[in-house]
Amino acid sequence: MQVPESGVNKDMEKICEKSWGGRSMIHVAAAMIFMFLSFGLCNAQQTIRIGGTVSLSGPYTQLSYMSKNGYELWAKEVNERGGILGKKIELIFYDDRSDPDVVGQLYEKLITEDKVDLVLSPYGSTLTAAAIEVTEKHKYIMLAAAAASGELWDKDLKYAFGIFSAADRYFIGFLDLVARQEIKNVGVVFRNNEFNVSAAAGVKRWVDLFGLKLVFFERYADPEKELPEMMMKIRSSGVECLVFCGNPPDGYFFIEQLKAVKFRPPALAISIIPAYSDFYDRVGPFAEGIFGPSQWEPDESMPFPGTSKFIKRFLAQTGEEPSYHACSAYAVGQVLEKSILSVGSIDQEKIRNHIAKLDTVTIMGRFKVDEKGRQIGHNPILIQWQNGVKEIVYPTKLQTAPAIFLKTTLN
After folding, report:
1. What is the pLDDT of residue 7?
2. Domain ranges in the chain?
3. pLDDT digits (tens, 9 = 90+) for 89-105
4. Which contacts qualify for 277-283: CB closer than 8 Å, 24 or more apart?
5. Which residue, among 328, 326, 296, 297, has the nearest Cα to 313 in the 3D structure?
6. Which CATH code is given to the segment(s) 47-166+302-367?
7. N or C, which end of the chain has less CB nearby within 10 Å?
8. What 3 state SS string does the chain have?
9. pLDDT digit string (tens) for 382-397?
């Protein structure tokens, strides 16, 4: 810090030399500033700084906020308990605008400029893949709270680990139930991005394994332009079971197109949006009978430790029920906390080695990864809207109601 060298300051320095035993006030002030900065540095060392990005705009906004709120609830509870290894958690979030290019830049900043101790993942497979390019380069742990693309885990990653069951397994329960009905013809519509391509590929594979018939399989890039044109093709294909894999806004738009042509197959499953607590309010009676994959549900019957407390505290903090995206973010915090305590430090290599071998239970269920970091301990569940209520219909051990199927293809 520079001090102005005015005549007044020179005179003051002479006076202070007498008053402070030969030491000028400027020297004392400099010493005090040094002590203050040293104290601040020591104080900073009493926190564990964890950084990440959140989408404040773009298609991932709603779910990204859920993830952020899940992270924040975990950090709040940790700090209420006194922290980890005696250190409080400090979270740093930047807005990534749902843009993978921005994500890469921000994680580079978090690691090289902000020098965070650990990182948290953004929302979605596309953004997480962009973040992982940076974290792998810097050898930082990345627990992917909201990335389910199977392709992500086919890469040669060392420091990344999944929380979600992979996307190619999302619709297993749905197709299992369909195969037990007098339903044969399956159609798939999917957006051309990493997560949805992976989910659609999984449907295609499981259709074969369950002895069903794939009669329609088409991707899209521009929903407003392409989805309306697909409607009559879908209907004329003889589809009895229809699976839609797309971003949340696309899902609602797709439903509007089904309504417009008055087409409703006996079995209809849509990714992501049926798991929203406000899905029925937004869609109306057409929501009846719609299936959707979920990684977890805010139901106190879920048999995982801390479920009831988590649901109540999340509701109190945010004013809304947690989605599985909030739950997975909270579970990431639990895995990080457990690993840090187990190895006794925030060393990336030690934490990495511990997570690679970890077999534990979080708020979301079992956590265990394979040699590539893919989640293999946790399996998705299936929900369905019945009489305006979201019910768990698969697997049987978690079922809150049996699945129902419509008898007609018309709305």
Report:
1. 36
2. 47-166+302-367, 169-299+381-398
3. 999 999 999 999 999 99
4. 277/320, 277/321, 277/323, 277/390, 279/385, 279/390, 280/385, 280/388, 280/390, 282/252, 283/252, 283/255
5. 326
6. 3.40.50.2300
7. N
8. CCCCCCHHHHHHHHHHHHHCCCCCHHHHHHHHHHHHHHHHHHHHCCEEEEEEEECCCCCCHHHHHHHHHHHHHHHHHHHHCCCECCEEEEEEEEECCCCHHHHHHHHHHHHHCCCCCEECCCCCHHHHHHHHHHHHHHCCCEEECCCCCCHHHHCCCCCEEECCCCHHHCCHHHHHHHHCCCCCEEEEEEECCHHHHHHHHHHHHHHHHCCCEEEEEEEECCHHHHHHHHHHHHHHCCCCEEEEECCHHHHHHHHHHHHHCCCCCCEEEECCHHHCCCHHHHHHHHHCCCEEEECCCCCCCCCCCCHHHHHHHHHHHHCCCCCHHHHHHHHHHHHHHHHHHHHCCCCHHHHHHHHHHCCEEECCEEECECCCCCECCCCCEEEEEECCEEEEEECHHHCCCCCCCCCCCCC
9. 999 999 999 999 999 9
pLDDT for residue 62: 86
CB neighbour list of residue 29: distance below 8 Å, 6 or more residues apart: none
| Residues with pLDDT less than 70, the chain | 1-45, 408-411
Look up tokens 């909201």; give the residue.
146
**Using CA atoms, how far apart are residues 115 and 90, in angstroms rounded to an integer?**
13
What type of residue sits at position 269?
A
Side-chain-side CA neighbours of 252 within 13 Å: the count stands at: 13
Amino acid at 239: V
CATH number of 169-299+381-398: 3.40.50.2300
169-299+381-398 matches 47-166+302-367 in CATH topology: yes
The β-bridge partners of 92 are: 51
Cα separation, 247 vs 63, whole angstroms: 11
User: CA–CA separation, 99 vs 317, rounded Å?
Assistant: 28
